[in-house]
Design a protein that fits this description.
95 residues; mainly alpha; 0% strand; globular
């Protein structure tokens, strides 16, 4: 299975949108950095994602996240869900 850059980007964006929706439902601010229920590691990563502003950096980020999935228990389900739902939806919104 080969995942393109745009597919991975859409996957990440969809996950971020889901997090924002969950926070909104809980009556919390929509900014992921301010969410008290997020793990500190996620907060740190989200702070640095905003600094990724070119396709080379974005490619490195997405590839690193995908490779990291091999070390995370249960990541297969998350990746497959993104591949089926999040990525296709995101690709439709990209130019």
């Amino acid at each position: 299975m080969k995942i393109t850059k745009s597919q991975l980007k859409s996957l990440i964006l969809e996950e971020l949108q889901e997090i924002e929706q969950q926070q909104a439902q809980q009556g919390q601010e929509a900014q992921p950095e301010a969410a008290p229920d997020q793990k500190s590691d996620v907060q740190r990563v989200l702070q640095y994602i905003a600094k990724v502003d070119n396709k080379v950096e974005y490619n490195q980020l997405l590839n690193s996240i995908l490779k990291h999935a091999q070390q995370v228990q249960g990541a297969k389900l998350v990746v497959m869900n993104a591949y089926r739902k999040t990525i296709p939806a995101l690709v439709k919104t990209l130019k």
